[in-house]
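Reply to dn_fold:

You asked what the input looked like. This is it:
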Amino acid sequence: MDRLVASGTSVVKGAGIRQFAIDKSEEIAPEMISLLQASTATPKTRFSTTELVASMMHKLSPELINTICSLGVENRYSAMDNYAEFLSGAPMNATSSTTDLGVNAIRKCIEEWGGDPSEIGLLVAATNTPDQMLPCLASEVMGRTYGLLPRSLSTVSMQSQGCSVMLKSVEVAQWYLAANPGKLAIVLMSEAHTPFVAPLVREEYYGFREIARMRKNDKLTDAGFEQQRTETTLAIQSMLFGDGAVALLLGQDITGKPSFGPIAHLTNDSPEDVDLLRMISNSSHPALNGRPQYFMRPAVPVRGAHYALATVNDVLHNPNSPVSDLSQIDDCLIHTGSKKILDGVCSQLQLATDSTKVHNSYDVLENYGNLSSASTGFMLARKTAWAGPAIVVGFGVGFTASAGLMSVN
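and this is what came back:
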């Protein structure tokens, strides 16, 4: 039987079984792709933390208010125009949705780019907060963009992929563009979190340390402690997340435009990490009324920082990286989990929290809240100057993390 022996890019025909021997020193780096345009969309209504806390001051303990104010979120946009009233038990008055936001971001992206949409051959759409189970977000967006996006383009929906999905989506676009020269791709991340939160309908909500003291003083049973802990978590989540969408237009490596690569990933470095973050589809909690419920373990800040450090190091040590140290990086665009999580990542990366390198990360958290999949995309859309390289870091449900370098040729 003939055999094929591969060495580098040469192929030699001979006898025997099929074998392959690849010289890793001759590996070819994947083709770079460039960011041509990044555009965001938010709902019309913005709510400040001060406003929301004031509307529920009578039911939130001072310790819990301090915790809420330490999240690092000053404002967030909501897909409903009565979010404060909704948190107090009023019916939801939704004025936008995940699909609405995604469509608006794509329209804005194409308009600001100013090119021919017929060049777009791929849409990758990611969300953790779909309007419905099926059809997926990409199909819903296509249904709302007649006359804008070509009907023949390929679609990929990446739902429930957590907060690190942006760079994974970019890699999908990279593979498509390598196989389809001359085409462009759109990567969309769209989230409407606030319709998923639980109304705060109990008479009193306490901080974590308060309920720990109650259990220690026998004022709460173990079951009562777990129930109160859940209520505290739901109250914090109602103040942490925000709604928004970002669309990235990508093309093959273009001089003068920022390009992605290399990119590194890490998933479940420890087996138990799979349960660090999770969401069940049908909650038994009365305030959620059968809607999904999000759970986060206390170890998330520490493990998130570990994953961020590991993936950043993988990128910096990649032989195709133009830099080898964070001192050579202008901007670190880090997912906006919360201020505590951001602080932990900065500590692991040996970055001062008031450094200009991480200003964009804290600023997006402050003004938009935790946007999950869209957070680092918002940072890219706000970045107007590319004097030096930037690194993008996302981590979350899975448990998984991705980091990627961006630089201008």
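Residues 1-27 have pLDDT under 50 and may be disordered.
Hope that clears it up.
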